[in-house]
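Two quick folds needed for the group meeting slides. Do the first one here.
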Amino acid sequence: MTISDLMLSSDFMSAETSTTKFQTISSSGKWASMFAGSPSVNGGIMTSVYGLLEGKQESFDEVVAAFEKAFRLALKRKIDGELLSPYGLDRDAFFKRGRGYFGEEEFSRILYQLNAIKLETSFLVVGFDPNSFPQIFSVFDPGVFEDHNHLGFHAIGTGWMRALGSLYGTYDGDLSTLDLIYRLCEAKFLGESALGVGKDTFIDVISPDGTHQVLYPQQVEPIRSIWLKKEFRQFQLRHARKSRAHFTKLGGQ
């Protein structure tokens, strides 16, 4: 089960769109990913991943390897294009001949710049392996994979801390589908306080056979209304407790 916003951002602006950050990554429909960062980077990596998985069994290791390779190739292209192309070099040639070509000082300066280049885009990947076992992992700069199967959930993007904090307190693998949808919505709504997280919400539920059931933003809003009423009641209770404690203290004095 996945949940995401619909806000796309660049270096200069961000806007709510009708484009989801969710995409299937193979023809079987059994694997999908979400991204946080550049839509352009996402598009290139998704094209590469789809090609790398074509004809494969789509095991956990194969999907991880496809993402790592696609991510690292995209990072190499960025380094070659933005930094090394004016010198007529690519990254491999720079490491082989750069020290002799530039000298130690200039080589070190360019190497520092090279190491600072990032894709600044991360991916959260979920799906089912050939044995119909659910899997979840993330990939981030500089093409590093992290397994999240031990928890069963994860979050990426600017709202990740509040979302994960919520899920750590409420997630249970035995929850029903409806209860789990509510818990994911709760975590996402809390994450909206972070800069760059949009309000519109898209949910996709993947089955082991690769079929998908989705909830669009207009279908999620009634869940938001229920959550807001619950939050308001909890706020009232906290305020009432503080007031009682305050008056009790005054009475004691």
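Then this one, please, same format:
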Amino acid sequence: MIDRMRKKLNGNVSLALGARIKLLGYDVRQLALRHYFGRVYATMASIVLDLPIYDTQCGAKIFKNSDEIQIAFKRPWHVTWSFDVELLGRLGIIKKAHNLPPLSQTAVEFPLEKWIHREGSKVRPVDFFKGIMELLRNCK
């Protein structure tokens, strides 16, 4: 999977994001409640970021080592749960400030062929509400 993602980083593309999308021929297994909470959160984050991203919280992300990535990771984080959204927001702000092409032109999201929920996951329903609160608090 890492090789496939790395191959996406070419030309203008500096960020490859995985998306957990259940499609025919793909093995994507998530708990229903977690999937639906995630869809609500990802939709809200997509609106806030003004970026048509399907799965903000998918952990499968790979970055090209670039100046904007280095700048984005230098400052301390303001959130605990919604790190992914804060990072995407930072990249959008950095790109705009440096007159660089926007994330909509430099990021690619693609469905993962396999993603299986593991028992013992530390994400709980309360984390969804924490994420929403962080999103709302940091959008002001």
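Slide caption for protein two: The chain has a mean pLDDT of 88.
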